[in-house]
UniProtKB/TrEMBL annotation:
The chain crosses the membrane at residues 9-26, 59-77, 83-105, 112-133, 162-181, 213-230, 250-273, 285-305. Keywords: Cell membrane, Membrane, Transmembrane, Transmembrane helix. It comes from the Bacteria. The keyword Membrane applies. This is Branched-chain amino acid ABC transporter permease. Its main location: membrane. Pfam families: BPD_transp_2. It is a multi-pass membrane protein. It is found in: Cell membrane. It comes from Streptomyces rugosispiralis. InterPro entries: ABC_transp_permease, LivM-like.
Amino acid sequence: MTGLLKSPTTHITGFAIAIASLPFWLIPNSGILAIAIVALLYAAAATAFNLTAGLGGQLSFGHSIFFGLGAYATALLRQDLGWNVWAAVPVALTIAVVAALALALPSARLGGVYFVLVSFVATLALESIATWASDVTGGAAGISLTVGSPAPAELRFENPLGHYYVALILLTTFLGLFAAVTRSNFGLRLRAVRDDPAAAAASGIAVARQRTVSLLVSAALTSLVGVAYLQYISYIDPTSAFGSMTASMIAMPALFGGLGTLWGPVLGATVLISVQQTLNPAFSGLPAGLGLIVFGVLVMALQTIEPKGAVHLLRSGLRHLGQRLGTSKRTAQPAGDSLT
């Protein structure tokens, strides 16, 4: 019974049930629901990012590449060719994986800040290309999809609640996959590469191969989030697809919550995305990039307090509270005995 309670599957199932019930008792209006949908989507993207950055130690600031390619590919196939979203998904996923492979092959041996720089330059380049190729992408104006009549089978919902549950299914699936990878031999090799690449290579682990495979899987998952985001917003442009803010909204929840942990990206997205979405109206008349500064300040503040992330800070707080409560009970016990 104790083993069952400690099982990640049990925790993920309980989480899914709890979050699925929120619209019925805690989310009071459509505005809060919209924030919740975006938070769930970026929690899923951060979990995909965590697969390569948290387990493999290969930090990337370019996961918006895969997010944007998934969204743009689906938008073009739906709008220009009239494809069903389910027909577009495999194409979008394949394009993202090919892009990840193109990024990984010349830079798979790079680590630390070097791969971060390569991935960041790549996403900036794609943003510029998407803006320039206006005949295909709509340029800076982007692509607005014709919504059409509601069709839940094609992920078109009359009520945003449908998109909420799509986002929750994505996140729950990604959490289950992350937990499975963590417990697998592949996950063990990834952590070995993360902790000491030289020692991992000396023990026979193909470091570049492990990093490449994790990046390909992460890219495929992130592209699915891009598709779900497009289905929800029905609009995509170069900035929302490939911009630095999108890259930050994917990476920083994992960094804030705790890299390599199951619940770090979820906790990070809950805090950061909720703050960002709540403050968006206040940022509308202010210089671009202010939201990114807020993200950075929050992450740096937490790193100063707990470098391992918010999950570890929360665990330490709960452990300390438990110890305090236990001490209080032990202190109170002799008084109880004397009255007996």
